Amino acid sequence: MIMQDLGTALKSNSYPGRGIVIGRSEDGKYAVTAYFIMGRSVNSRNRVFTATEDGIKTEAFDPSKLTDPHLIIYSPVRVLGNKTIVTNGDQTDTIYELMDKQQTFEQSLRGREFEDDAPNYTPRISGIMHVENGTYNFAMSILKSADGDPSSCERHTFTYSNPKAGQGRFIHTYMGDGSPLPSFEGEPEKVNIKGDIDSFTNEVWESLNEDNKVSLFVRYIDIATGKAETRIVNKNK
Questions:
Q1: What is the rounded distance in angstroms from the CA atom of residue 176 to the CA atom of residue 214?
Q2: Which of 80, 152, 196, 223 has the most CB atoms within 10 Å of its CB?
Q3: Mean pLDDT of 153-160
Q4: CATH number of 6-93+125-141+156-234
């Protein structure tokens, strides 16, 4: 697979929807993840990321304008021991609860499907990072309708052991704008990861479509120590 420049990939798609990037920093020292949300409606754009004890949650920027919390208010990031869970919906909690009961990442998602937002049937995208004793691996998942047919759910899981420095994988909900929105296709895209946490955060944020971007979360986890550093950017301030 050809490695893409992450900034260029983001700039070329006006509406990737929600996206997860997971990989390894350029210097090889950090496990890296980024999660962003975008929106086309007032309800979707009326959101911010706020920090929690172990990750983030979405909240309404102006509670008086919140018309439907369904599918837009959730915890995208939670930490379970040495595992960091990143998703685009409330399946974060499903993964957390079932993995805490010794189920695998893949098993924990078997009871979930794509979102019930006809006619888009937005895919549920998820990732999990495992950093322990100087080792690092991660996995990504997508649950999607079969070519827009809600009677059939396709389940794909991709695993990556000892990822290479400066490389990441990028999975997002939509291939681009449209009506209905076209679901992501294929395996997670290979993208480069450049610079430290601040330069990487800036690249992702500045590359997202100005009209549609809403919030961005970035975390760098020191593979040797497990110590994490986080950045949160919200368009609404």
A1: 16
A2: 223
A3: 98
A4: 3.60.20.20
